Amino acid sequence: MTNSVRLESGGSVIVPIRKPLTDELGRTLLRDVGEMISRGNREIRIDLAGLEELDSPGCAWLIRAVRAGKAAGAEVKLVGAAGRPAELLELMRPNFEPLPPPSPRPGFLERMGDRGLTVWEEFRQALGLVVDALYWSFIAPLEGKGVRWKGLLDEIQAMGSSAIGIVCLINFLLGLVIAMLSAAQLRLFGMEILVASGVVIGFARELAAVMTGIVVSARTGAAVTAELATMKVSEEIDALKGMGLSVSRFLVAPKILAILVSMPILTILGFLSGVAGGFALGIFSLGFTFERWWWQTHQAVSMGDISQGLVKSVFFALIIVLVGCHNGLRVRGGASEVGKATTRAVVMDIFLIIVADMVFATIFYYTT
User: I need a labelling partner for 66 at 20 to 30 A (CA). Which of 104, 151, 287, 346 fits?
Assistant: First the structure.
């Protein structure tokens, strides 16, 4: 360094700084402090009395010098600063402490425990929502607490009437595809007429309820989540609670009742549309008469088959609304979290619908 270094009584070393701390001077200062510490000096004072100006890069070099001293077990002090350099050093004082060591990476058991606690907390919240929502949907009206009929009719319009077109179209196209695939295989045995049986049984027991549930989850489930999540972010939910109103009564219960009315009807329409798709192939492509195809369809299906699909549709409806409401009401943060909650709700809806369908298929397999 071009600055002189002097030794005081008691082993203190004073390093006077007279020039602005450029990058070159800062590196030299840092190197000299390291050399002094290596020679056994345990107290180094950097004299800033002659320093008139100090900028952020210069302050950064002083910070590195102080931290280097503390890391080596020595004490590096800044003395004599006045005016603007003193003000900047006071402002940056918290940065002179050594950086804390990085937190150790949590182990496997710690991560699993944290994940388990998170899942348990979410399960507890979901269970509380289910109990509260089912009370306001079914028990409270019997106790004379009324039903929000206007909200219910609006929800039926949004969840049911508006979804008829897309539900019927998708089920019709699916029935047409399944009929074509079945006909290609049954043609090898000269039994194309059995396509009618396969289509009607498949849609009555399985496909109408599942496909309608997936369409409704992507359409209605996403809308429910986005609506409640937006209200949560904009603090409308907190406003309702602040007024002493039940969120489940005013927001969740009408949605549950509406989808329980709409979903079985949509499932029946999906069933008829899927069978119509099979009809279209059988009559216009396979060459069967309407009477022959209708007779085969009528002989293959029973009310028990149709009731299986309707029972599933009721449970799928509850899954769609409760999952949507749960994800919407647990949103924290800003607008980006609304999109994440909506995506999460749709994925959970489809997954739980498939799981519930597997459970019902197992039950019906061993009981019918």
Answer: 104
User: Cα separation of 183 and 307, whole Å?
Assistant: 27
Q: Indicate if the pLDDT at residue 1 is higher than 50.
A: no
Give ∠ CA 71-75-77 in degrees, rounded to 5: 120
Q: How far apart are CA 243 and CA 231, in angstroms?
A: 15
What pLDDT band is residue 257 in, cutting at 50, 70 and 90?
Answer: very high
**Higher pLDDT, residue 43 or 209:** 209
How far is 37 from 30, CA to CA, in rounded Å?
Answer: 11
Mind giving me the DSSP string for 5-61?
-EE-TTS-EEEE--S---HHHHHHHHHHHHHHHHTT--EEEEE-TT-----HHHHHH
Tell me the domain boundaries of the chain. 6-96, 114-367
Query: In the CATH hierarchy, which fold is given to the domain comprising 6-96?
Result: Transcription Regulator spoIIAA (3.30.750)
State phi, psi for 78 to the nearest 5 degrees: -105, 120
Summary mean pLDDT of the chain: 84
pLDDT digits (tens, 9 = 90+) for 49-84: 777 777 777 777 777 777 777 777 777 777 777 777
DSSP state at residue 2: -
pTM of structure = 0.72
| CA 319 distance to own-chain centroid | 17
- Looking up tokens 């949560």 gives 232
